[in-house]
Every structure is written in structure tokens, then in C-alpha cells.
Amino acid sequence: MKAIVCDAFGPIDDLQYKDVADPVAEPGHVVVNVEAAGVNFPDGLLVQGLYQMQPDFPFVPGNEVAGTIVELGEGVSHLHIGQRVIALSNLGGYAEKARIAATHVLPLPDAIHVNEGAALVTAHATAHHALKQRAKLQPGETLVVTGAAGGTGLAAVQIGKTMGAKVIAVCSTEEKLALAKEYGADVLINYKENDLKETLKEVTEGKGADVVYECVGGDTFHACSRSMSWEGRLLVVGFAGGEIPKFPVNLALVKGYSVMGVFWGAFTQHDPKGFAQNMQELLTWYVQGKVKVVVDEAVPLHQATQAMKKVMNREVKGKMVVVP
């Protein structure tokens, strides 16, 4: 089968599109014929050796897929061959087939297009876990989302609204803000044209944010860290802007708020049951029209490097998908 292969950490352009052996179902696993795979910011970090996880070589990147089960491993009884599914693959998604633990495979409702299903697993699930398990977001609270037009930021906007929050979207362009507004943002802030700290103070009437979903880093993080409410929750999701900020811990002491790391991948491994329950809730919301995956572009598998670079350069509104 064809796959995108990383033989050594390095530039994204070093990835190879080539033939590899088909996966075989091991006990407790299934093999999925991949019809679409989501492209995520961590994929680009991973192949450059800049991510928390550093797999053995060679490996195939890609951690979320949608497709059809073509083989069942021993002990798998809740799934069947020919079933339409979405799955968290961790690795191996950028390929024509992927072997995936059955605990991380879920039926895909007929109402959801395969491209949207593939792009639902990571970005929306990260936002859902962050706002539900980590921040315990409550109806009526104020949620600030940075990078609110990207894959996971736009997901946080939608999920925050579904959970009853007032959502403040923070983006770098008016075009991106318009997309965030379309999907539920109540207040829009262009941080390139406005002082973010002062504007957050103004729109929260001096109270500050109850929850911040922060996935940009750098100066954006610093502004948010000074804009928290008493007993607020500052969620550290990622650093799409490139700079990992240093946090002055006295701010948490004086303002009485919490800084919470969000590592969804670790959550899925530590609590697979909780992951499955979260995904079922997300899929229900999706069918009900409460959340939606915005697919910026779907490209052939052999163009995966271009898709990854577009994501890394923050040129995507919503999600990118590769299609074997």
C-alpha cells in the first residue's frame, strides 16, 4: 500500500510517499481502509522531532482517520467488517490502510461525511476534553478562545457555545474572525489591531476571563495570563505561534487562578472509556447540528506534505484532510 513515511526527523519536505507493507490485524486491533485522514499541527512537529512523542523509525504520521473496517483481530466483538468508522490511530493515518486498537474505533453515523468524520477526532475531541474534564466550563461563564479560526480553536468556539458559555474569539484577521462568528462567537477581537490585554479587560467589564483556551503561545499567552478572573482556568493547549512562553507563577498566586495543561493524546491512553464517552457525546451533538467540522481543503495523500505545511503556517480555516 501507499503511505507517507518518516525515515528520520527533519523538514516536512523530507517525508517519502512510497510503498510499505499492508498492516495485519493483531489481537484487540482492527485494520481500517482509510478513506480520509485529518491533518493536525502536532503532525508537523512530530516529523521534525519537536513533539512530546518520538516514535521509532520508520513511521507513518497521522493520528485520526475515517474509513471502513476490512479486518478484525482476535478478541474484537463489538465491531464488524464493512463497518463505517472513525478512529484514533496515534500513528499510521497517512496511508491507505491503518491498524488501530479497537478501543479507539467508533461507528461513524451515516449523516457525517467521511472527510468531516476524519477531521472530528482530534481537534474537536481536544477542545471537548479541555472544556469538559479540565476546565469544567459552566453555563454563563466567559470563554476566551485564541486561534479561534483554526481546527481546534473553531471547535472550542462551537463546544463552548454548546456548553452555554459566552465565547470571545481572538484571531489575527477579520476574515478569520468572521468564520468564528459564523460558528457561534459572541465577541470578536483582532489581536493584530488591538491591545489584547486591554480589550479583554474592556469586554469582560474588568472581571477577566473565566476560562481561556490558549493554543497560540507567545505574546498572546502573556496577554491572556494577565486577563484571568478570580478562580479562572487558563488552558495550555499548544503553541501554534511558535514561541513556548514562560509563565510568571506569581500571577496565579495573586489572581487565584489555575493553569491547566491539555494533552488529549495522554487522556485517551489513561482513560479510553472517558475518550469513548466524549466521542459519543460529540457525535450526538454533530448529528444534532450543534457542532460542525469545517474542512478547508481535502487533498490527495501524495500531497500530504503541502497540507502539513499549510497547517504549520497557520493558513488554514478549520481543518485539512488527506484522501488516499
TrEMBL record:
Can you name one GO molecular function term for this protein?
A: oxidoreductase activity
Source organism per entry reads Alteromonas australica
Q: Which residues form the Enoyl reductase (ER) domain?
A: 10-322
Q: What is this protein called?
A: NADPH:quinone oxidoreductase
UniProt-listed CDD domains:
QOR1 (cd08241)
Pfam families associated with the record: ADH_N, ADH_zinc_N
Segments crossing the lipid bilayer: none
InterPro entries in the record: ADH-like_C (IPR013149), ADH-like_N (IPR013154), ER (IPR020843), GroES-like_sf (IPR011032), NAD(P)-bd_dom_sf (IPR036291), Zn-ADH-like_protein (IPR051397)
